[in-house]
Design a protein that fits this description.
Blueprint lengths: L15 E3 L27 H11 L3 E4 L17 E4 L16 H8 L1
GO cellular component, one term: nucleolus
Protein name: Signal recognition particle 19 kDa protein
Subcellular location: Cytoplasm; Nucleus, Nucleolus; Nucleus, Nucleoplasm
Length: 109
């Protein structure tokens, strides 16, 4: 098995994950919200997050059957996560305005 240092940042398993709970203003920090309520939106879906990231020009893909571990509700609207590529093969940023997943989350809303 290859070590993590040898894997390329462009491998899909190295993309960052964004779950809808990270951006949901109905969630508390303990329930998984990662941004301020003022920047969060009401009940975002993984498809909406994918659309916004794609419109900005990021390389994204949707994993529909994934669930956030803190999400107690198993309804279809709460399922899914978005994988986003922040770095290219050489380690440089794909888009300089998004150097980290935190900045991406704040800007996507």
């Amino acid at each position: 098995m290859a070590c993590a240092a040898a894997r390329s940042p462009a491998d899909q398993d190295r993309f960052i994950c964004i779950y809808p709970a990270y951006l949901n203003n109905k969630k508390t920090i303990a329930e998984g919200r990662r941004i301020p309520i003022s920047k969060a939106v009401e009940n975002p879906t993984a498809t909406e997050i994918q659309d916004v990231c794609s419109a900005v020009g990021l390389n994204v893909f949707l994993e529909k059957n994934k669930m956030y571990s803190r999400e107690w509700n198993r309804d279809v609207q709460y399922r899914g996560r978005v994988r986003v590529q922040l770095k290219q093969d050489d380690g440089s940023l794909c888009l300089v305005q998004f150097p980290s997943h935190y900045i991406l989350s704040l800007t996507s809303c």
